[in-house]
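Notebook entry, structure prediction.
Reason for the run: the old model in the group folder had no record of what sequence produced it. Starting over properly, with the input documented here first.
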Amino acid sequence: MAETPGPDDLLTLEEQIAAYQREFQDLDPQVEQVVSALSRLTRRMNVAYSRQSATLGISNSEWEVLKALVLSGAPYQLGPGDLAKRLGLTPAAMTHRIDRMVNEGLVTRERDAGNRVRVIVELTPDGREKWLEAMRQATVFEEDLLQDLSSDERGALGEMLTRVLRRVEEAQPDAEGRLSDLG
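New structure, fully documented this time:
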């Protein structure tokens, strides 16, 4: 099934910037080129990652849970509330996601032996293997994506994007990369 094009996909980046300048003369074309290119790149990368996850039989939302557990470090355990907070989800949405993942054998959910009120979600060996395979596929994709840049250019681009990211994070400290709080 073909992806539905976004409104800016019907125009080249240059055409979009020219149209913006025609309608809004105060536009800085260099700024707009950077921002629009980043936006398009992010959207296309997300589509590619979604397709890769689908080949592994997991959704992007399941990938996010696997990633959060791996990033927590061995023994790859978190409580459902911690997972929900890290992923910007409601507890009910997190419970639904965990239910699916338990059924798929990606995680387990057990009562904490030391605190019977607390529940622990733990990555299973199958879940870790799915995460590793997703990382292998992503690495190939990302290396291909950046193949035209030298090592120095990659380093410089990484540093510049990190500076921009820090500025956004400082200006929007409560956003955490999610749009759900904008209602």
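Summary: The beta strands are 77-78, 107-112, 115-123.
The old model has been moved to the deprecated folder.
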